[in-house]
């Protein structure tokens, strides 16, 4: 198992070579080595060296050093945003972590072995010497990669007491990579889960976001629940576990339904906001559950759920824009689905309420909700019919307003007074533009109005009527295209 050297950017290779040429050691380290071995594109490139910060800056004068960890940023001329600055960190050793999050003291190490010893998981504790093509793998990270294991470096209790965020990272890596957390590591997370209280809400948000955006968020959330981490993200999720729903509409309890809805959003590569809405859309069912005449109801769970989603996401320091979008989607996810009762005016009101920019995300949420309920089809006829109606109300209807001339311009250019003649002129022009859209220019239409004004009143009326009929036919044709696209009548 060796990294593909052709996938290492020239900027990274050049910096590494320059360090070696200056008499220092240089290794790629951490996640980029792991990703290269997995044949994935690394998201960032980290180099480590035995050079101290001032020595690194001596080799690279156009660099900056503004932190307590010795990391020096090397500026490049790359057009790739991920390569504009490449970070080099000296070998490090760390003291005790009295706050279960940050080392009390960071010292520079003398060798790569010391640096790898402090890292979190074996798959992240490998170093690659670009110049020699050699991997240093003291903790069998390659073996764990081949087995699909997330395993702590050394004693997992020690690793998690040093930095409690590592427990969330283990779960996130599991979801991103589809790996299993090794038993001793998993038991340690479960045992030390309370240490997560020492992690800032912002850092929890960051790991939670990466988990939600992974390919396997359902698995990640289930592992978080099993290892007692879920409540440290938010208590509201555990409320849904074991809460049964109406079997006629749902195969699963609320918790499993939310996870399956989220997973379908991930399978469809939907945005973070849709995935969060999928996870939160029925979050308030436990709080609104009632038995009415022998039937289970969840009245107003959309309204209460939107409020719960907003409060939870705000507590995790999500941006105002994300909070508002998820709140809107959860609040409106119960929109009507009976096509026999839906009217275009009702659809217009929903689009006005949700906004044109968000209406299709709401439809995406409905698709995920269906699959998460155990339904076999994403888009049954009723949903396709509704999508067709949205297409209809959101498109610009065909009308004389599309012409590159209007009544005001006609009256300003020609000795024509307000009256039926204006409408007749515009409709006569409309027939020609429908026949040949290239004629819809100000220059052509002004010239054509001049010609039309020379016709007698009856001729102009006849041409206007032909224009109105052509417009109606074109409108019907457009609607037919929309319905055909959605396979509805």
Question: Could you explain the architecture of this structure?
Answer:
This protein is of the alpha+beta class and 489 residues long. The protein has 3 domains: 142 residues, Beta Polymerase, domain 2, CATH 3.30.460; 131 residues, no CATH class; 87 residues, no CATH class. 52% of the residues lie in helices and 8% in strands. The chain has 23 helices and 13 strands. Strands 3-4-5-2-1-8-9 form a 7-stranded mixed sheet. Strands 6-7 form a two-stranded antiparallel ribbon. A two-stranded parallel sheet has the order 10-11. A hairpin with a 7-residue loop joins β3 and β4. α10 packs antiparallel against α12 and α12 packs across α18. The chain is flat and about 100 Å long. The two termini are 57 Å apart. The mean pLDDT is 89.
Notable features of this structure?
23 helices, alpha+beta, Beta Polymerase, domain 2, flat, 3 domains
What is the gist of this entry?
Helices cover 52% and strands 8% of the residues. By secondary structure, it is α+β, with helices and mostly antiparallel strands.
CATH architecture of the largest domain: 2-Layer Sandwich
The CATH topology of the largest domain: Beta Polymerase, domain 2
How many helical stretches?
Answer: 23
Low-confidence stretches: none
What's the topology here?
Blueprint: H1 10-21, E1 27-29, H2 31-37, E2 46-49, H3 53-59, E3 63-64, E4 72-75, E5 85-90, E6 92-94, E7 106-108, H4 112-117, E8 127-129, E9 134-136, H5 141-147, E10 149-150, H6 156-162, H7 165-177, E11 180-181, H8 183-192, H9 201-212, H10 217-226, H11 230-233, H12 254-267, H13 272-280, H14 285-288, E12 290-292, E13 295-297, H15 301-315, H16 320-331, H17 344-354, H18 359-372, H19 381-394, H20 407-413, H21 420-435, H22 442-452, H23 457-486
Parallel strand pairs: 2-5, 10-11
Antiparallel strand pairs: 1-2, 1-8, 3-4, 4-5, 6-7, 8-9, 12-13
